[in-house]
Amino acid sequence: MEKSLYNLKAEQGLLGCCMLGGMEEAIAAGVDGAWFYDLRHHEVYRTLESMYERAEDMDTSKIIYELRNKNVLDKVGGAAALTDWQDSAPTKFNAPYWLSELFIYKTRRQTKAKLENALSAISGSSTGEVDDMISSLQTFILDMKDHVGRVKDESIKETIVEVVEEIEERYNNKSDTPWGIPTGFLGLDNALGGLRDGALYIIAGRPGQGKTAMAISIARNVLISGSPIGMFSLEMTKKELGMRLMAVHGELDMSTAYRGALSKDDFKRISKSVEVKMLPLYVNDRTDLTVNMLRSEARRYVSNFGVRLIIVDYLQLLQGSKEARKQGKYEELSEISRGLKLMATEVNVPVIALAQLNREVEKGGGKRKPQLSDLRGSGSIEQDADCCMFIYDRPSSDEGMETFGKKEMNMVIAKNRNGDSGKDIGFEFQPEYTKFTPLSPVDR
Protein backbone atom coordinates (compact mmCIF):
# COMPACT_ATOMS: atom_id res chain seq x y z
CA MET A 1 0.00 0.00 0.00
CA GLU A 2 1.15 3.54 -0.75
CA LYS A 3 3.05 5.17 2.08
CA SER A 4 0.71 8.17 1.89
CA LEU A 5 -1.97 5.87 3.34
CA TYR A 6 -0.22 4.92 6.59
CA ASN A 7 2.23 6.23 9.18
CA LEU A 8 3.69 3.53 11.40
CA LYS A 9 5.65 6.05 13.46
CA ALA A 10 2.41 7.87 14.35
CA GLU A 11 0.77 4.57 15.33
CA GLN A 12 3.68 3.75 17.60
CA GLY A 13 3.72 7.30 19.01
CA LEU A 14 0.04 7.02 19.96
CA LEU A 15 0.62 3.64 21.60
CA GLY A 16 3.52 5.15 23.55
CA CYS A 17 1.23 7.96 24.77
CA CYS A 18 -1.39 5.39 25.82
CA MET A 19 1.20 3.46 27.82
CA LEU A 20 2.20 6.71 29.53
CA GLY A 21 -1.41 7.42 30.61
CA GLY A 22 -3.03 8.86 27.49
CA MET A 23 -5.78 6.25 27.05
CA GLU A 24 -8.55 8.71 27.93
CA GLU A 25 -7.67 10.88 24.92
CA ALA A 26 -7.67 7.90 22.57
CA ILE A 27 -10.99 6.54 23.83
CA ALA A 28 -12.60 10.00 23.65
CA ALA A 29 -11.46 10.26 20.01
CA GLY A 30 -13.13 6.92 19.20
CA VAL A 31 -9.95 5.06 18.27
CA ASP A 32 -10.64 1.59 16.90
CA GLY A 33 -9.13 -0.85 14.43
CA ALA A 34 -9.63 1.54 11.49
CA TRP A 35 -7.03 3.89 12.97
CA PHE A 36 -4.23 1.33 12.59
CA TYR A 37 -2.70 0.09 9.36
CA ASP A 38 -0.49 -2.42 11.18
CA LEU A 39 -2.71 -5.14 12.70
CA ARG A 40 -0.08 -5.85 15.36
CA HIS A 41 -0.38 -2.25 16.56
CA HIS A 42 -4.14 -2.69 16.77
CA GLU A 43 -3.64 -5.78 18.95
CA VAL A 44 -1.46 -3.78 21.31
CA TYR A 45 -4.06 -1.04 21.48
CA ARG A 46 -6.83 -3.55 22.26
CA THR A 47 -4.74 -4.90 25.10
CA LEU A 48 -4.14 -1.42 26.53
CA GLU A 49 -7.84 -0.60 26.15
CA SER A 50 -8.80 -3.78 28.01
CA MET A 51 -6.42 -2.92 30.86
CA TYR A 52 -7.84 0.61 31.04
CA GLU A 53 -11.40 -0.71 31.22
CA ARG A 54 -10.35 -2.98 34.11
CA ALA A 55 -8.88 0.11 35.83
CA GLU A 56 -5.40 -1.47 35.90
CA ASP A 57 -2.27 0.67 36.18
CA MET A 58 -0.39 1.15 32.91
CA ASP A 59 2.74 -0.34 34.40
CA THR A 60 5.28 -1.40 31.76
CA SER A 61 5.86 -4.80 33.36
CA LYS A 62 2.11 -5.48 33.43
CA ILE A 63 1.76 -4.44 29.78
CA ILE A 64 4.63 -6.78 28.83
CA TYR A 65 2.98 -9.60 30.78
CA GLU A 66 -0.39 -9.06 29.03
CA LEU A 67 1.15 -8.90 25.56
CA ARG A 68 3.28 -11.99 26.18
CA ASN A 69 0.21 -13.98 27.26
CA LYS A 70 -1.51 -12.98 24.02
CA ASN A 71 1.52 -13.93 21.91
CA VAL A 72 1.79 -10.34 20.68
CA LEU A 73 4.94 -9.12 22.40
CA ASP A 74 7.49 -10.85 20.15
CA LYS A 75 5.50 -9.95 17.03
CA VAL A 76 5.94 -6.22 17.71
CA GLY A 77 9.65 -6.44 18.58
CA GLY A 78 9.64 -7.35 22.27
CA ALA A 79 10.01 -5.17 25.35
CA ALA A 80 12.61 -3.02 23.59
CA ALA A 81 10.01 -1.91 21.04
CA LEU A 82 7.65 -0.75 23.80
CA THR A 83 10.45 1.31 25.33
CA ASP A 84 11.17 2.90 21.93
CA TRP A 85 7.47 3.78 21.51
CA GLN A 86 7.36 5.46 24.91
CA ASP A 87 10.52 7.40 24.04
CA SER A 88 8.96 8.59 20.77
CA ALA A 89 5.78 9.68 22.55
CA PRO A 90 7.46 11.01 24.83
CA THR A 91 4.61 12.16 27.15
CA LYS A 92 0.89 11.41 27.38
CA PHE A 93 0.15 15.08 26.57
CA ASN A 94 1.31 14.48 22.99
CA ALA A 95 -1.71 12.21 22.36
CA PRO A 96 -3.72 14.93 20.49
CA TYR A 97 -0.84 15.37 18.03
CA TRP A 98 -0.55 11.67 17.23
CA LEU A 99 -4.35 11.35 17.05
CA SER A 100 -4.60 14.15 14.49
CA GLU A 101 -1.84 12.51 12.42
CA LEU A 102 -3.53 9.09 12.48
CA PHE A 103 -6.94 10.58 11.69
CA ILE A 104 -5.58 11.94 8.41
CA TYR A 105 -4.22 8.54 7.33
CA LYS A 106 -7.37 6.72 8.46
CA THR A 107 -9.46 9.14 6.39
CA ARG A 108 -7.31 8.57 3.32
CA ARG A 109 -7.65 4.79 3.60
CA GLN A 110 -11.41 4.92 4.15
CA THR A 111 -11.93 7.31 1.24
CA LYS A 112 -9.84 5.15 -1.09
CA ALA A 113 -11.77 2.02 -0.09
CA LYS A 114 -15.11 3.79 -0.50
CA LEU A 115 -14.21 5.01 -4.00
CA GLU A 116 -12.89 1.60 -5.07
CA ASN A 117 -16.07 -0.10 -3.84
CA ALA A 118 -18.17 2.44 -5.71
CA LEU A 119 -16.25 1.86 -8.95
CA SER A 120 -16.60 -1.88 -8.55
CA ALA A 121 -20.31 -1.74 -7.75
CA ILE A 122 -21.24 0.64 -10.54
CA SER A 123 -20.69 -2.01 -13.20
CA GLY A 124 -24.00 -3.66 -14.03
CA SER A 125 -25.98 -1.73 -11.43
CA SER A 126 -29.50 -0.50 -12.02
CA THR A 127 -30.31 3.23 -12.05
CA GLY A 128 -31.74 3.05 -8.55
CA GLU A 129 -28.70 1.24 -7.20
CA VAL A 130 -26.38 3.80 -8.80
CA ASP A 131 -28.39 6.64 -7.24
CA ASP A 132 -28.27 4.96 -3.85
CA MET A 133 -24.54 4.37 -4.15
CA ILE A 134 -23.83 7.97 -5.22
CA SER A 135 -25.92 9.41 -2.39
CA SER A 136 -24.17 7.09 0.08
CA LEU A 137 -20.82 8.31 -1.25
CA GLN A 138 -21.93 11.94 -0.97
CA THR A 139 -23.06 11.39 2.61
CA PHE A 140 -19.73 9.75 3.46
CA ILE A 141 -17.74 12.63 1.98
CA LEU A 142 -19.88 15.30 3.66
CA ASP A 143 -19.72 13.49 7.00
CA MET A 144 -15.97 13.24 6.66
CA LYS A 145 -15.74 16.91 5.70
CA ASP A 146 -17.73 17.89 8.79
CA HIS A 147 -15.53 15.73 11.00
CA VAL A 148 -12.28 17.06 9.56
CA GLY A 149 -13.60 20.61 9.89
CA ARG A 150 -13.96 20.32 13.65
CA VAL A 151 -10.57 21.69 14.67
CA LYS A 152 -11.37 22.06 18.37
CA ASP A 153 -13.85 21.08 21.02
CA GLU A 154 -16.38 23.79 21.79
CA SER A 155 -17.07 24.87 25.34
CA ILE A 156 -20.68 25.39 26.41
CA LYS A 157 -19.65 28.82 27.69
CA GLU A 158 -20.22 30.52 24.31
CA THR A 159 -23.59 28.79 23.91
CA ILE A 160 -24.82 29.98 27.32
CA VAL A 161 -23.77 33.54 26.48
CA GLU A 162 -25.78 33.36 23.23
CA VAL A 163 -28.88 32.09 25.06
CA VAL A 164 -28.69 34.86 27.68
CA GLU A 165 -28.23 37.50 24.97
CA GLU A 166 -31.29 36.22 23.12
CA ILE A 167 -33.38 36.22 26.32
CA GLU A 168 -32.32 39.81 27.06
CA GLU A 169 -33.09 40.90 23.49
CA ARG A 170 -36.53 39.32 23.59
CA TYR A 171 -37.23 40.97 26.96
CA ASN A 172 -36.10 44.40 25.79
CA ASN A 173 -38.15 44.15 22.61
CA LYS A 174 -41.10 42.58 24.46
CA SER A 175 -41.11 39.86 21.82
CA ASP A 176 -43.67 37.08 22.17
CA THR A 177 -42.89 35.42 18.85
CA PRO A 178 -41.80 31.74 18.94
CA TRP A 179 -38.12 30.94 19.35
CA GLY A 180 -38.28 28.75 16.27
CA ILE A 181 -39.98 29.15 12.89
CA PRO A 182 -43.69 29.98 13.43
CA THR A 183 -46.11 27.40 12.03
CA GLY A 184 -48.78 30.07 11.56
CA PHE A 185 -51.02 28.35 14.14
CA LEU A 186 -50.89 30.28 17.43
CA GLY A 187 -51.98 27.38 19.65
CA LEU A 188 -49.36 25.10 18.12
CA ASP A 189 -46.63 27.75 18.33
CA ASN A 190 -47.43 28.42 21.98
CA ALA A 191 -47.07 24.71 22.74
CA LEU A 192 -43.93 24.09 20.65
CA GLY A 193 -42.21 27.46 20.75
CA GLY A 194 -42.11 27.29 16.95
CA LEU A 195 -40.16 24.81 14.84
CA ARG A 196 -36.61 24.71 16.19
CA ASP A 197 -33.45 24.22 14.17
CA GLY A 198 -32.08 20.68 14.29
CA ALA A 199 -35.30 19.21 15.70
CA LEU A 200 -37.31 16.29 14.24
CA TYR A 201 -41.10 16.65 14.37
CA ILE A 202 -43.39 13.72 13.68
CA ILE A 203 -46.98 14.37 12.54
CA ALA A 204 -48.85 11.07 12.49
CA GLY A 205 -52.36 9.82 11.87
CA ARG A 206 -54.38 7.11 10.20
CA PRO A 207 -54.85 7.24 6.40
CA GLY A 208 -57.23 10.00 5.32
CA GLN A 209 -57.02 11.99 8.55
CA GLY A 210 -55.17 14.92 7.03
CA LYS A 211 -51.44 14.43 7.67
CA THR A 212 -50.45 15.83 4.28
CA ALA A 213 -53.09 18.56 4.52
CA MET A 214 -51.67 19.65 7.88
CA ALA A 215 -48.11 19.64 6.48
CA ILE A 216 -49.18 21.72 3.47
CA SER A 217 -51.12 24.15 5.69
CA ILE A 218 -48.00 24.67 7.83
CA ALA A 219 -45.82 24.88 4.70
CA ARG A 220 -48.04 27.54 3.17
CA ASN A 221 -47.84 29.66 6.34
CA VAL A 222 -44.04 29.31 6.48
CA LEU A 223 -43.65 30.02 2.75
CA ILE A 224 -45.66 33.25 2.77
CA SER A 225 -43.43 34.46 5.63
CA GLY A 226 -40.53 34.20 3.17
CA SER A 227 -38.77 31.03 4.40
CA PRO A 228 -37.85 28.49 1.66
CA ILE A 229 -38.98 24.89 2.16
CA GLY A 230 -37.73 21.58 0.77
CA MET A 231 -40.45 18.93 0.49
CA PHE A 232 -39.87 15.25 -0.24
CA SER A 233 -43.11 13.64 -1.39
CA LEU A 234 -43.01 9.87 -1.75
CA GLU A 235 -46.79 9.53 -2.05
CA MET A 236 -47.95 12.44 -4.21
CA THR A 237 -46.55 13.88 -7.43
CA LYS A 238 -45.28 17.42 -7.75
CA LYS A 239 -48.43 18.31 -9.71
CA GLU A 240 -50.72 16.93 -7.01
CA LEU A 241 -48.83 18.86 -4.35
CA GLY A 242 -49.10 22.01 -6.45
CA MET A 243 -52.87 21.54 -6.70
CA ARG A 244 -53.13 21.02 -2.94
CA LEU A 245 -51.11 24.18 -2.25
CA MET A 246 -53.25 26.18 -4.70
CA ALA A 247 -56.42 24.90 -3.02
CA VAL A 248 -55.16 25.88 0.45
CA HIS A 249 -53.85 29.30 -0.57
CA GLY A 250 -56.80 30.41 -2.70
CA GLU A 251 -59.53 28.35 -1.00
CA LEU A 252 -60.20 26.79 -4.38
CA ASP A 253 -62.23 23.60 -4.68
CA MET A 254 -60.17 21.63 -7.19
CA SER A 255 -62.91 19.07 -7.81
CA THR A 256 -65.19 21.92 -8.96
CA ALA A 257 -62.40 23.33 -11.12
CA TYR A 258 -61.86 19.98 -12.85
CA ARG A 259 -65.57 19.62 -13.59
CA GLY A 260 -65.54 23.05 -15.22
CA ALA A 261 -68.36 24.23 -12.95
CA LEU A 262 -66.72 27.53 -12.06
CA SER A 263 -68.42 30.68 -10.86
CA LYS A 264 -67.07 34.22 -11.06
CA ASP A 265 -65.92 33.90 -7.46
CA ASP A 266 -64.05 30.73 -8.40
CA PHE A 267 -62.11 32.59 -11.10
CA LYS A 268 -61.12 35.19 -8.49
CA ARG A 269 -59.89 32.34 -6.31
CA ILE A 270 -57.86 30.92 -9.19
CA SER A 271 -56.15 34.30 -9.57
CA LYS A 272 -55.19 34.16 -5.91
CA SER A 273 -54.23 30.49 -5.93
CA VAL A 274 -51.64 30.92 -8.71
CA GLU A 275 -49.70 33.23 -6.42
CA VAL A 276 -48.13 30.07 -5.00
CA LYS A 277 -45.87 29.84 -8.07
CA MET A 278 -43.82 32.63 -6.50
CA LEU A 279 -43.36 30.80 -3.20
CA PRO A 280 -39.88 29.29 -2.53
CA LEU A 281 -40.98 25.64 -2.38
CA TYR A 282 -38.62 22.97 -3.75
CA VAL A 283 -40.22 19.57 -4.32
CA ASN A 284 -38.66 16.14 -4.83
CA ASP A 285 -41.33 13.58 -5.76
CA ARG A 286 -39.15 10.51 -6.28
CA THR A 287 -40.80 7.40 -4.90
CA ASP A 288 -37.58 5.37 -4.50
CA LEU A 289 -35.77 7.63 -2.04
CA THR A 290 -33.47 6.03 0.49
CA VAL A 291 -32.64 7.79 3.72
CA ASN A 292 -29.07 8.37 2.46
CA MET A 293 -30.34 9.94 -0.75
CA LEU A 294 -32.67 12.13 1.31
CA ARG A 295 -29.85 13.33 3.57
CA SER A 296 -27.71 14.15 0.56
CA GLU A 297 -30.49 16.09 -1.19
CA ALA A 298 -31.44 17.93 2.00
CA ARG A 299 -27.89 19.16 2.37
CA ARG A 300 -27.97 20.39 -1.23
CA TYR A 301 -31.30 22.18 -0.71
CA VAL A 302 -30.03 23.96 2.40
CA SER A 303 -26.71 24.87 0.79
CA ASN A 304 -28.03 25.95 -2.64
CA PHE A 305 -31.49 27.34 -1.90
CA GLY A 306 -31.28 28.44 1.74
CA VAL A 307 -34.05 26.05 2.76
CA ARG A 308 -35.25 26.70 6.33
CA LEU A 309 -37.63 23.75 6.76
CA ILE A 310 -37.72 20.20 5.39
CA ILE A 311 -40.91 18.13 5.11
CA VAL A 312 -40.95 14.37 4.41
CA ASP A 313 -44.23 12.71 3.30
CA TYR A 314 -44.05 10.12 4.61
CA LEU A 315 -41.56 8.25 6.82
CA GLN A 316 -42.67 4.65 6.24
CA LEU A 317 -42.29 5.03 2.46
CA LEU A 318 -38.58 5.81 2.70
CA GLN A 319 -36.12 2.99 2.08
CA GLY A 320 -33.25 2.04 4.34
CA SER A 321 -29.89 0.63 3.31
CA LYS A 322 -29.61 -2.85 1.80
CA GLU A 323 -28.18 -4.16 5.06
CA ALA A 324 -31.09 -2.77 7.09
CA ARG A 325 -33.66 -4.12 4.62
CA LYS A 326 -32.19 -7.59 4.99
CA GLN A 327 -32.71 -7.43 8.76
CA GLY A 328 -36.42 -6.68 8.48
CA LYS A 329 -38.85 -3.77 8.48
CA TYR A 330 -38.34 -2.91 12.14
CA GLU A 331 -34.58 -2.45 11.71
CA GLU A 332 -35.11 -0.57 8.45
CA LEU A 333 -37.49 1.92 10.08
CA SER A 334 -35.11 2.30 13.00
CA GLU A 335 -32.34 3.24 10.57
CA ILE A 336 -34.66 5.66 8.76
CA SER A 337 -35.84 7.46 11.91
CA ARG A 338 -32.26 7.76 13.14
CA GLY A 339 -31.21 9.04 9.71
CA LEU A 340 -33.90 11.73 9.80
CA LYS A 341 -32.76 12.94 13.22
CA LEU A 342 -29.14 13.00 12.07
CA MET A 343 -30.21 14.93 8.97
CA ALA A 344 -32.00 17.55 11.09
CA THR A 345 -28.87 18.00 13.19
CA GLU A 346 -26.53 18.07 10.18
CA VAL A 347 -28.40 20.70 8.18
CA ASN A 348 -29.55 22.53 11.34
CA VAL A 349 -33.11 23.19 10.20
CA PRO A 350 -36.40 21.76 11.49
CA VAL A 351 -37.56 18.52 9.85
CA ILE A 352 -41.24 17.51 9.77
CA ALA A 353 -41.77 13.85 8.93
CA LEU A 354 -45.27 12.48 8.41
CA ALA A 355 -45.96 8.96 9.67
CA GLN A 356 -48.68 6.34 9.83
CA LEU A 357 -50.36 5.16 13.00
CA ASN A 358 -51.18 1.48 13.37
CA ARG A 359 -54.71 0.02 13.43
CA GLU A 360 -54.85 -0.14 17.23
CA VAL A 361 -55.98 3.48 17.30
CA GLU A 362 -59.15 2.52 15.40
CA LYS A 363 -60.40 0.31 18.22
CA GLY A 364 -63.36 1.65 20.16
CA GLY A 365 -64.90 3.30 17.10
CA GLY A 366 -61.76 5.23 16.18
CA LYS A 367 -62.36 7.91 18.84
CA ARG A 368 -59.51 6.92 21.16
CA LYS A 369 -56.76 9.49 21.58
CA PRO A 370 -53.58 8.14 19.89
CA GLN A 371 -50.58 7.20 22.01
CA LEU A 372 -46.87 6.90 21.26
CA SER A 373 -47.25 3.12 21.14
CA ASP A 374 -49.58 3.57 18.14
CA LEU A 375 -46.71 4.72 15.89
CA ARG A 376 -46.48 2.16 13.13
CA GLY A 377 -43.42 -0.01 12.64
CA SER A 378 -40.73 0.93 15.16
CA GLY A 379 -40.39 2.26 18.69
CA SER A 380 -37.26 4.10 17.57
CA ILE A 381 -39.45 6.72 15.84
CA GLU A 382 -40.68 8.08 19.17
CA GLN A 383 -37.16 7.75 20.60
CA ASP A 384 -35.46 9.73 17.82
CA ALA A 385 -38.13 12.41 17.44
CA ASP A 386 -38.00 15.62 19.43
CA CYS A 387 -41.75 16.01 19.13
CA CYS A 388 -44.59 13.61 18.19
CA MET A 389 -48.02 14.98 17.26
CA PHE A 390 -51.07 12.90 16.38
CA ILE A 391 -54.12 14.01 14.37
CA TYR A 392 -57.46 12.47 15.30
CA ASP A 393 -61.22 13.21 15.25
CA ARG A 394 -62.18 15.65 17.96
CA PRO A 395 -64.33 13.93 20.59
CA SER A 396 -67.72 15.57 21.04
CA SER A 397 -71.32 14.83 21.74
CA ASP A 398 -72.20 15.61 18.12
CA GLU A 399 -70.98 12.76 15.95
CA GLY A 400 -68.34 13.96 13.52
CA MET A 401 -68.86 17.66 14.34
CA GLU A 402 -69.17 18.41 10.63
CA THR A 403 -70.97 21.71 10.12
CA PHE A 404 -70.98 24.05 7.16
CA GLY A 405 -68.53 21.86 5.29
CA LYS A 406 -66.01 21.94 8.16
CA LYS A 407 -64.81 19.12 10.34
CA GLU A 408 -63.32 19.62 13.78
CA MET A 409 -60.06 17.76 14.44
CA ASN A 410 -57.64 17.56 17.32
CA MET A 411 -53.86 17.37 17.38
CA VAL A 412 -52.38 15.93 20.56
CA ILE A 413 -48.74 16.61 21.40
CA ALA A 414 -47.76 13.18 22.73
CA LYS A 415 -44.05 13.99 23.13
CA ASN A 416 -42.30 17.32 23.34
CA ARG A 417 -38.64 17.59 24.38
CA ASN A 418 -38.81 21.38 24.44
CA GLY A 419 -42.08 21.86 26.29
CA ASP A 420 -45.15 20.30 27.81
CA SER A 421 -46.64 17.15 26.33
CA GLY A 422 -50.22 15.91 26.42
CA LYS A 423 -51.68 19.18 25.15
CA ASP A 424 -54.61 19.01 22.73
CA ILE A 425 -55.01 21.68 20.03
CA GLY A 426 -58.25 22.07 18.10
CA PHE A 427 -58.44 22.70 14.35
CA GLU A 428 -61.11 23.14 11.72
CA PHE A 429 -60.57 21.06 8.61
CA GLN A 430 -62.14 22.13 5.31
CA PRO A 431 -62.06 19.00 3.12
CA GLU A 432 -62.84 20.75 -0.16
CA TYR A 433 -59.71 22.90 0.26
CA THR A 434 -57.74 20.27 2.24
CA LYS A 435 -57.03 23.13 4.59
CA PHE A 436 -56.56 23.34 8.36
CA THR A 437 -57.39 26.53 10.26
CA PRO A 438 -57.34 27.25 14.02
CA LEU A 439 -60.50 26.24 15.86
CA SER A 440 -62.44 29.25 17.07
CA PRO A 441 -62.23 29.69 20.87
CA VAL A 442 -66.04 29.80 20.94
CA ASP A 443 -66.17 26.24 19.63
CA ARG A 444 -63.70 24.76 22.10
Break the fold down into its secondary structure elements and pairings.
Elements: H1 8-28, H2 39-53, H3 60-69, H4 78-88, H5 95-122, H6 127-149, H7 156-172, H8 186-192, E1 200-205, H9 211-224, E2 229-233, H10 238-250, H11 254-259, H12 264-273, E3 281-284, H13 291-305, E4 309-313, H14 322-327, H15 329-347, E5 351-356, H16 380-384, E6 387-393, E7 402-403, E8 406-416, E9 424-430, E10 435-438
Parallel strand pairs: 1-5, 1-6, 2-3, 2-4, 4-5
Antiparallel strand pairs: 6-8, 7-8, 8-9, 9-10
Helix pairs in contact: 1-2, 1-4, 1-5, 5-6, 6-13, 9-10, 10-12, 13-15
Question: How does this model look, in words?
Answer:
The chain is α/β, with parallel strands linked by helices and 444 residues long. It has two domains: 3-123, DNAb Helicase, Chain A, CATH 1.10.860.10; 180-443, P-loop containing nucleotide triphosphate hydrolases (Rossmann fold, 3-Layer(aba) Sandwich). Helix content is 50%, strand content 13%. It contains 16 helices and ten strands. The protein has helices at 8-28, 39-53, 60-69, 78-88, 95-122, 127-149, 156-172, 186-192, 211-224, 238-250, 254-259, 264-273, 291-305, 322-327, 329-347, 380-384, and strands at residues 200-205, 229-233, 281-284, 309-313, 351-356, 387-393, 402-403, 406-416, 424-430, 435-438. Strands 1, 2, 3, 4, 5, 6, 7, 8, 9 and 10 form a ten-stranded mixed β-sheet that branches. Strand 7 and strand 8 (406-416) form a beta hairpin. Helix 1 packs across helix 5 (95-122) and helix 10 crosses helix 12. The longest helix is centred in the first third of the chain and has 28 residues, at 95-122. The radius of gyration is 28 Å and the shape is elongated. Residues 148-152 and 397-401 have low confidence and may be disordered.
